[in-house]
Amino acid sequence: MDVSVDLETLGTGPRAVIVSIGAVKFLPTVGGEALSEFYVNVELESCIEAGLTVDSAVYWWLRQSEAAREALIHPAPVPLVVALEEFSDFFGSCECLWGNGSNFDNRLLYSAYHAVGIPYPVHYTRDRDLRTLEWAAKTVSRSTYRRRSRMPGEVHNALDDAEYQAAIIADCFDALR
What's the CATH code of the domain at 145? Predict the structure, then answer.
């Protein structure tokens, strides 16, 4: 079983503040449906205290939907260390962690773990990148792979995005078979 993760952040740099973590456990070669889910909002102050940073992405958030912004405060945010410990428990003994981009979700999550001194729960050989997999599916199966339409849910809600990513990963594996 693998995990698809999506972060909502207040930055795009390597130590960006994380304001929510959404994840789903799924089987990448069997439909990609969420078998269990994880969602937590993170206290801004705790991220800044840990040395994470905010950049102009905060202005981008001001232009997002009210529902997406509301999801960042309900449920109530928890300290970064608590959010990461809960994510580690959720990840458990899963095989791989899939993020959307080799230099974003997984990297920022790793940086946050490092900032608070908690071991990253994913072995370095088990970090996976949706964008690279999707590129391979498009390249190898030129006529069969098409990105699926957006699933129901709110764009820029970390949990909804993680679920959508899991479905795309499964589609890519189907195309590559």
Answer: 3.30.420.10
The DSSP letter of residue 143 is: T
Say how many domains are in the chain.
Answer: 1
Q: Kindly report the backbone phi and psi dihedral angles of residue 99, in degrees, each rounded to the nearest multiple of 5, phi listed first.
A: -120, 170
- The string of pLDDT tens digits covering residues 20-55 is 999 999 999 888 888 999 999 999 999 999 999 999
- What single DSSP character describes residue 155? T
What global pTM score does this model have?
Answer: 0.93
Q: What residues in the chain have per-residue pLDDT under 70?
A: 143, 150-152
Query: 149 forms bridges with which residues in the sheet?
Result: none
Q: What is the DSSP string of 141-154?
A: TTTT--PPPPPSS-
Q: Indicate the helix (H) or strand (E) that contains 161.
A: helix 158-176
Do the Cβ atoms of 1 and 90 come closer than 8 Å? no
Q: Which domain holds residue 147?
A: 2-176
